[in-house]
């Protein structure tokens, strides 16, 4: 068993739950309310800006020129490919400049980004481990939804992006990179890499749920039971 197979197995419960989450199923079936996808897109655009920063930080931690160049290219491609994909959704979803200026991250998006920044303070292996679920899980979700043909064009475009050969190549590259880094890492570092990976898988699952519930700080606060004060 490779290191990436091992850590994926450790996160299997979170991983499998992503495929059956109603948000993901709703994209494939075309039944997901656009208001929920709109909320997700705005949160994901925020996430991807930070994701690109983490990719750039990973490049700065590499020693080999080829790895530096590849990881820097990943940061650029995140902007060019994924953010441009989201921007193509803005108009049909009614996302305006005013909406973007007033944007506030949801608790899950904020926590996930904070986790990635924390992990990226460690080694290159720890950094890659923290960002790999975003690559790998989205590719597998895209593959699962390949047989679906939602009438909503936005959802079909989303599926086409994450099931593409271009995206597959990037995913396999990062999996191989993490396996290679794990071979050189100490047992302690490997354990940190595993922990970062599993935590990111946990947040990936919560990210779907964040979109499904249209989570905000206010909505989460309102679920807390009111304190009963006895006289």
Automatic annotation (TrEMBL):
Protein name in the entry: Aminopyrimidine aminohydrolase
Domain of life according to the entry: Bacteria
Record domain Thiaminase-2/PQQC: where: 9-213
Subunit structure and binding partners: Homotetramer.
Catalyses which reaction(s): 4-amino-5-aminomethyl-2-methylpyrimidine + H2O = 4-amino-5-hydroxymethyl-2-methylpyrimidine + NH4(+); thiamine + H2O = 5-(2-hydroxyethyl)-4-methylthiazole + 4-amino-5-hydroxymethyl-2-methylpyrimidine + H(+)
Listed NCBIfam families: salvage_TenA (TIGR04306)
Keywords recorded for this protein, A-Z: Hydrolase, Thiamine biosynthesis
Pathway linked to the protein: Cofactor biosynthesis; thiamine diphosphate biosynthesis
Membrane-spanning parts: none
SUPFAM superfamilies hit by this protein: Heme oxygenase-like (SSF48613)
Similarity section: Belongs to the TenA family.
Gene that produces this protein: tenA
Enzyme Commission numbers on file: 3.5.99.2
Its biological purpose: Catalyzes an amino-pyrimidine hydrolysis reaction at the C5' of the pyrimidine moiety of thiamine compounds, a reaction that is part of a thiamine salvage pathway.
